[in-house]
Amino acid sequence: MTPEHLHLALNHLPFLGSGFALIPLLVGILFKSRAALVSGLLIAALSGWSTGLVMDTGEKAYERYHNEPISSMIGAAGEEAMELHEERAHDWSKVMYASAIVATLGLAACAKFRKAERWAAGASAILCAASLGAGIYTAESGGKIRRPDFRSGEAVMNGRPGYAASSVSISGSSKSITMASMAECAFRKASTSSGSKCVPVPSLISSTDFSTA
Fold it and tell me: In sequence order, what are the beta bridge partners of 208?
């Protein structure tokens, strides 16, 4: 499994987990339930510490996009969104790490300092709410990397958001394909022997004239 697949599979854990942790934390604070407090703190700690794994897979995916032929698959607008996504992830991941630290300390407080557990849970709840907001803010830019319909100002073709049409001419019969299909074809050619052929798949959304020998 590539870093991109792992990143997509894991990237919601830190902030969605923080959102889920808010429920038992608030229940524990309002109803003075120690079991709910401990459950919320445990979820918050595990969610916060998963940030490191998400950041690691994101960094590796970022390097692959820049160092391998697949960089052409996302286009200029996608690359701009990727740079913004990386910047936000680095800035706001600190909130998630802080949430993990406070939740871990809160668990220790529950074990040894019973009088401080509600205060620890309150601090953890605030940081969980901040982590949820930070995660949504970061994910907003991440979704724009491969989704033109999430970006403002994109070209619209046939009533659907997509790439503006362009023309590429290579000897042979013309076929209508997407820009992503062109990039995938280029990647396959670069990854296999020079004699292999690649036939792009026609698209129903946006098209580009392209030909294969």
Answer: 177
